[in-house]
Amino acid sequence: MSWYLYLILAYVVFLMGFNFYRSRQVKSQDDMMVAGRSLSLKVMVFTLICTWIGSGTFIAGAEYAAKAGWSSLWLPAGAWLGIVAIYFLAGKIRSFGKYTIGDILEVRYGKFARLFGALALIISFTAIVSYQFRAGGYILNVVSNGAISVEVGQLVTAAFVILFTATAGMVAVAYTDLPNGIIILTATVLAAPIMYHLAGGWQTAVQTLPTEHFGVFNADFGAYPLLKAGSYFLATMFLLLGVQSMYQKFYSAKTPRDARQAVALWVIGTIVVETVVIVVAIFAATQYWQPIKEFDLLSRLKTKVETNAIAADNIQPTLLEMIDSEVAAGNIKVFQKAQIVADLTQQASLQNVEQIDQLMKTKTIDPASIVLQAAQTIATQGGLLLVVGILLLAAAVAVVISTGMNYLLSPTTNIMRDIFQRFIHPNASQRQMVLLQKLFILLLGLFAYYIATNLSSVLEMSYFAYTIYGVAITPALIAALAWKRATRVGGLVSIISGAVVTVFLKSAGYIWPSIMVPANDPNGDPWGIPIIYPALFISVILLIGVSLLTKPPQPAELKELFAENE
């Protein structure tokens, strides 16, 4: 087993001790949910970076970059614009001084908006936590050289994240994010130019990777590449604009001024980290393009076998046809074909799923682990590069732990604040609130782990989680903060319709697979149109239309969020 693993486990044990020490500060609801509203500017900046930079960046985003190239920048770019927009709202959010976005939704739209908003958030954030656990499984699998399976790795990750979060709530989250954020920023900035050099630079990338990797819109995006790129952009932007984890951090700041300044620095750190991770992924893909394509080919072949699309005696011929098709499409260069054929046809004939699985374990690289592969490649160079490689592995661990903690704490805060305290036991004591939230952290964490054990793609799950949150919560939330004419009925209808349309269209891939593009792929798009477009259109148009058709809110309903001169 690799000694990298022991270093990473030592770092996690250090964080555990730190969290137990900090847990002594947690005595009230304020401490558990918003760290006693005491976070300094420095802590705020790094905890905001860690909240957003998670396995969505290091695993899903990097996987996307390895597969699609520079056009993958569409995915994080939406968040950059979202951060700029939220700068103008950060001070108001802190001045409001509550706990969840449900507090804002109820002030503007009533208690049922609070309830439905909480339900949509719990669904989305539990999905996000699930793929943090999955990402942790990838990390432990890679750093242990396969000695720890992905399944065992995700169990270990889930245990640590649940324990850390339940120990001290926001106090643990924020102060764990400080060292983690420093590691993430340092490691990614150092790793990018090193990986560029090790992969042979720009010219080697052009010769090795498909031409599509250097396009603005990748043809593999779907039936309408421009629409798909736009859907990634909108999904991340609308998630960022409304994501409760960020609002909780604003509530946790010492002052509104600290909240605004933290956002200004946060946008710089986020742009830097997400860009250099994509650089690392693309040039690592340059170095490992053949095993990446072998993984893709065998994955698709395995699906065909499992769905009985091909017979056992036709597995090998089908594989060779798929290779020829990839060469014709330009995804495999002619000079790469011979080695790929040699790697995948070592046996006389592939005859079952077990043989395909064995070949995948020994010959291929899962693109979801591309940053981890880059970290090991850098570390094997020795000297100072060993330190950089280990730092990059530690950064991957840091993002999984930090993001998992943030997104596990947030929905349990909704359960306690927006459901339990609002509808079940309004006069619960501070001790009851803290203990019950710890229990819900455990229960929701276990449910997220169950989802992780059945997860096929981190990228697809992250896209769904971003979409349902972005269309159900964000339009109504931003209107609550910035549009006085938004009414209770308009906001409530927007929240419900956004969630329902997203879930319905996502389910359509399983109910009517023939309408999906690519055909029969449940992770495709209905009729080739990404689901965020119809879902967002319906959510926004109903918000505006119903608000304009119903009675305007009274001044008393606006006074908590709008000053008299606004």
Give the topology.
Blueprint: H1 3-22, H2 29-34, H3 41-52, H4 55-68, H5 74-96, H6 101-109, H7 111-143, H8 150-198, H9 201-208, H10 225-242, H11 244-252, H12 256-287, H13 289-306, H14 315-329, H15 334-344, H16 353-363, H17 370-379, H18 384-424, H19 430-453, H20 458-472, H21 474-482, H22 488-511, E1 516-517, E2 525-526, H23 532-549, H24 555-558
Antiparallel strand pairs: 1-2
Helix pairs in contact: 1-8, 1-18, 3-8, 3-11, 3-12, 3-18, 4-12, 4-20, 5-10, 5-11, 5-12, 6-7, 6-21, 7-8, 7-18, 7-19, 7-20, 7-22, 8-12, 8-17, 8-18, 8-19, 9-12, 10-20, 10-21, 12-17, 13-14, 13-15, 13-16, 14-15, 17-18, 18-19, 20-22, 20-23, 21-22, 22-23
Can you give me a brief rundown of this structure?
This protein has helices at 3-22, 29-34, 41-52, 55-68, 74-96, 101-109, 111-143, 150-198, 201-208, 225-242, 244-252, 256-287, 289-306, 315-329, 334-344, 353-363, 370-379, 384-424, 430-453, 458-472, 474-482, 488-511, 532-549, 555-558, and strands at residues 516-517, 525-526. By secondary structure, the chain is mostly helical.
